[in-house]
């Protein structure tokens, strides 16, 4: 039902209007009546109104002034003017105020009022549809990137080509041709590390999407950029076969331009590799799967752009450990120069290339050892870094990213070695002497004869972390050493370190080390 307000200083006229037609049969509800412009304004603020029928000639605030104010507050409001005056200038003003109709009281019939109201209902329906359309488009623009990601995931699971093409059109993806080419790519993680925060990855993908859209418009090629669940770039090129054009070359040129523009505007390198042509939107799923398999098998390749080559599935070595190599890297981090880090990473690369270690195992092992170095340096583990490391697609990329992190940890380690103040040394000794106890910040403050509040501020200022994190990191470092020795089971180690429950100890261990005690052992 649409809400209507009648406004007239002539009370009998309002009573006449209420009985002149069947309001409810038109889908209208008489929600309010008013005898002046001022009272109509007050009712308008209290009631949701769709249509106002008002007299023009009223004292103080006439109908024209009233409607001007109402329209300023609610432009889609529909208005029918009702008056005894027939002068043209009134009608002209009513037209300027976008009125539905201008009716003369003395000549008013039920048919006239019915016709005007039907016209108002039609205009209200059209206005409502326009508003809904605008809201839908605004929501679409606002959430388009997320909707495109969802759409791509549906392309990988839904077999109905007709359904997916129809849904794509609603997102502005008009794949009207029969043939496709695809490319897969990712940001060089080390270049992300140097320029941005890892938390900015989604924003970078959004920016890359905007660059790709602009380039598609300029090149007049139907290329759509998606991002998958792993934060990778997926380019889909839709085209009509043309014997006079080499579409693969056109797509290659587009990707080269995209790569250069991303480097120019985002200051980042990007890997991009393209596949072979295929027919039908349903082929996207199979080609995406092939590309992902190729990525995994090409971990030890050094190219950053080109055609996807059909590689044999490699025989990964899953028996080798990186403990010896990472022990040398860990010692290098503690040294006074970075030369040792560079050399030890070169040795690691040589070893891994020779042994052809499975990429997932290699990245997981590196992430694990970096967490231990972070623990040693009292450096809070950056989860977004480890997430990026585990998603690296090339050995060179991962080693460059690791090098950046190790240089950072090396600086933190040197700072701790140089600036370990006597009071902090006292704190370390106190924790060591009371390993089997569950001590608190208040215990330490009492030991140092300091106010707990002052101690909390002092500790954070000197170490850069709060006491609880420092305390657990200190104990987890000892726990790692005890687990390596393999003299004690996990329950005994937990008790030695003051953790009465194994589950709680395991939760704390995983938080600061990155893996469970059982997995570490």
Automatic annotation (TrEMBL):
Organism, scientific name: Paenibacillus violae
Source superkingdom: Bacteria
At which residues is 4-aspartylphosphate found?
55
Response regulatory domain mapped to chain residues: 3-120
Q: Where's the HTH araC/xylS-type domain?
A: 425-521
Keywords assigned: DNA-binding, Phosphoprotein, Transcription, Transcription regulation
UniProt protein name: Response regulator
Gene3D superfamilies linked to this entry: 3.40.50.2300, Homeodomain-like
Keyword Phosphoprotein in record: yes
Spell out the SUPFAM superfamilies in the cross-references.
CheY-like, Homeodomain-like
């Amino acid at each position: 039902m649409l809400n209507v307000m009648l406004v007239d200083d002539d009370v009998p006229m309002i009573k006449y209007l209420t009985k002149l037609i069947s309001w409810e049969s038109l889908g209208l509800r008489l929600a309010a009546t008013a005898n002046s412009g001022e009272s109509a304004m007050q009712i308008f603020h209290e009631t949701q109104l769709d249509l106002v029928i008002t007299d023009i000639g009223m004292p103080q605030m006439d109908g024209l002034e009233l409607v001007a104010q109402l329209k300023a507050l609610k432009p889609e409001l529909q208005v029918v003017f009702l008056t005894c005056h027939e002068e043209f200038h009134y009608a002209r003003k009513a037209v300027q105020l976008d009125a539905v109709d201008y009716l003369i009281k003395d000549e008013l019939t039920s048919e006239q009022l019915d016709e005007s109201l039907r016209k108002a209902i039609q205009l209200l329906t059209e206005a409502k549809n326009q508003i809904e359309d605008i809201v839908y488009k605004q929501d679409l623009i606002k959430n388009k990137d997320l909707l495109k990601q969802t759409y791509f995931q549906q392309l990988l699971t839904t077999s109905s080509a007709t359904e997916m093409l129809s849904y794509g059109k609603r997102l502005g993806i008009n794949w009207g041709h029969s043939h496709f080419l695809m490319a897969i790519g990712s940001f060089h993680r080390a270049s992300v590390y140097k320029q941005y925060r890892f938390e900015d990855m989604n924003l970078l993908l959004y920016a890359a999407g905007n660059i790709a859209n602009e380039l598609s418009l300029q090149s007049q090629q139907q290329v759509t950029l998606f991002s998958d669940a792993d934060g990778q770039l997926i380019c889909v090129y839709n085209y009509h076969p043309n014997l006079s054009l080499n579409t693969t070359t056109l797509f290659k040129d587009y990707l080269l331009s995209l790569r250069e523009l991303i480097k120019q505007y985002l200051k980042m390198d990007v890997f991009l590799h393209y596949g072979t042509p295929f027919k039908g939107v349903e082929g996207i799923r199979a080609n995406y799967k092939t590309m992902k398999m190729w990525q995994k098998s090409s971990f030890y390749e050094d190219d950053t752009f080109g055609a996807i080559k059909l590689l044999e599935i490699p025989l990964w070595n899953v028996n080798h450990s990186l403990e010896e190599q990472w022990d040398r890297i860990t010692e290098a981090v503690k040294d006074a120069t970075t030369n040792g880090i560079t050399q030890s990473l070169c040795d690691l690369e040589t070893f891994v290339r020779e042994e052809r270690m499975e990429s997932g195992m290699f990245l997981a092992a590196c992430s694990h050892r970096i967490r231990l170095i972070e623990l040693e340096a009292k450096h809070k583990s950056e989860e977004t870094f480890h997430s990026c490391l585990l998603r690296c697609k090339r050995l060179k990329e991962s080693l460059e990213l690791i090098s950046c992190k190790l240089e950072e940890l090396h600086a933190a380690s040197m700072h701790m070695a140089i600036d370990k103040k006597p009071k902090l040394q006292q704190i370390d000794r106190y924790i060591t002497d009371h390993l089997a106890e569950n001590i608190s910040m208040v215990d330490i403050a009492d030991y140092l004869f300091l106010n707990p509040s002052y101690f909390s501020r002092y500790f954070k200022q000197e170490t850069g972390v709060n006491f609880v994190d420092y305390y657990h990191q200190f104990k987890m470092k000892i726990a790692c050493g005890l687990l390596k020795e393999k003299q004690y089971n996990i329950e005994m180690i937990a008790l030695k370190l003051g953790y009465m429950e194994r589950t709680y100890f395991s939760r704390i261990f995983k938080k600061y080390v990155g893996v469970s005690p059982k997995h570490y052992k």
